[in-house]
Design brief:
By secondary structure, this protein is mainly α. It is built from five helices and five strands, in the order αβαβααβαββ. It has a three-stranded parallel sheet, with helices on both faces. It has a two-stranded antiparallel sheet with strand order 4-5. The protein is globular, with a radius of gyration of 17 Å.
Length: 153
């Protein structure tokens, strides 16, 4: 009985991948192109998320620095801190936005990993990237529409 339930989870997962493939192919391609342009131009990739997405942001930075699928020189990447200490360091919030303004440079990339597109601290980081003339590819669900890219100046 349990094996049928497990099989159904695999089937549902494959179905979900099939459903989103068309919608996510172009935004993912745009994000990959932005990251490639950034790192081949000597820039770095900043990653950020909240909660479980923070762990994914750290993992993405680890893969960029440490290699993915094969040994290669590390790429410049850093996961921004979203822990309790950083989140409460300023009374008005905006810890991730402050980190973007302090660490981000023109032409670099900010990858925001959002669970539902409404995480305030992450949403605030986008305009900070815009202010620094960084590229910040958006998730298609963010802002309820197709993928958008914040400022490349």
């Amino acid at each position: 009985m349990l094996d049928l339930r497990i099989q159904q989870h695999f089937i549902d997962s494959a179905d979900l991948h099939y459903q989103v493939a068309e919608a996510l192919a172009k935004p993912v391609d745009s994000a990959v192109q932005a990251v490639l342009a950034c790192v081949t131009g000597g820039g770095k990739v900043l990653t950020a998320g909240m909660g479980a997405s923070s762990a994914m942001a750290q993992y993405l930075a680890l893969l960029l620095v440490g290699g993915f699928e094969r040994a290669r020189p590390g790429l410049a990447a850093m996961a921004l801190a979203s822990d309790g200490l950083m989140a409460t360091a300023w009374p008005e919030g905006g810890a991730l936005a402050r980190q973007v303004r302090a660490l981000g440079q023109t032409g670099e990339v900010l990858v925001l990993l959002l669970a539902d597109g409404e995480e305030g601290a992450l949403v605030e980081a986008g305009p900070a990237a815009h202010h620094r003339a960084m590229t910040a590819p958006s998730h298609p669900r963010q802002h309820g529409g197709p993928s958008r890219t914040h400022a490349t100046a």
